[in-house]
Predict the 3D structure of the following.
Amino acid sequence: MTVLVTGASGVAGRATCLLLRERGYTVKMADASAPPAELRDLGEFVRCDTRTPADCRQAVRGCEAVIHLAAWHCAHVPPVSDDTIWAVNTDGTYNIMMASREFGIKAFVYASSMAYGHGGVYSLTKVVGEEMARGYHHMTGAGVTLLRYHDFVPKPYLAFGEKLLRNGVDTRDVASSNVASVEAALKGGLGVFRTIVHTNHGMPVEVVANFRDLGPDWCESQLPGARDLMRKYNFDLPHRVEQHDMSEAKEKLGWTPQHNFLEFLRDLQTRDERGDDVHSLWAPGLLPPL
Ligand SMILES: NC(=O)c1ccc[n+]([C@@H]2O[C@H](COP(=O)([O-])OP(=O)(O)OC[C@H]3O[C@@H](n4cnc5c(N)ncnc54)[C@H](O)[C@@H]3O)[C@@H](O)[C@H]2O)c1
């Protein structure tokens, strides 16, 4: 089973390719940028600009499933122009879909975003992209997932931890949602399925609703020392934790997020006890091992 990952050299692409390989898939990687070192021996890499139909055909040929991540978003520094965002995210998606139709792709994962419908060119490209992906199902009968990821742009480690309580998600959960989507689509009968991809903290509802007051005690009950740790690192705690119902994703894709704030605190505690300079670390996915 060969799965194409477009945008393979990017943050989600790398994590997704590594996970696919771990699960026993043959991975074909496509990107306009060269692959990072950790992908070099993973499988075939195709230099592909998704704005070019022939590149897309070369990328999709020989695959059974496509995880389409290649896009520009608004977090790049210096920023990518709106015109380029539009061209890559819409024309590029169209070209990948047409190549997918030509080569009979039966499982198609579309990387959408919580930015969907929030205004701005990037947001608009995700609206158009979701509609195109829906159309791909209607044209071909393929199983299509539209995944509205929360924020996984790499950040300083402590900011990443705080972000998890708001609109942050761990890249590993993004990757596992992609792989679960392929598996569900290949089983058949998925149709078009859309879900939010976010963190699940496993907190009681009253803690979610009033985290600033109840969160530190609840964290302490799960992880002795957590309260002091949050004080020591001066966490800016949200009044309420952002949580979404992802039960349908569990039912339809067999996917649930695995990485959350408590896990982050456990990691921080170990690094703190060891004397790591956590202010110099970046996360997720770029951490040195514990
Ligand atoms: N990072 C986030 O927080 C976030 C949140 C929601 C949705 N998304 C979406 O998830 C997907 C992956 O995001 P990411 O953060 O991994 O992005 P990234 O910028 O790290 O990776 C995107 C990859 O796409 C490649 N690319 C750009 N133009 C291309 C082209 N014309 N042809 C081929 N490849 C091209 C880039 O070289 C890059 O390797 C994107 O579709 C993005 O819009 C990201």
The pocket of nicotinamide-adenine-dinucleotide is lined by residues 7, 9-13, 31-33, 48-51, 69-73, 88, 92, 111, 113, 149, 151-153 (CB under 6 Å). Residues 105 and 266 are 41 Å apart (CA to CA). The chain has a mean pLDDT of 95.
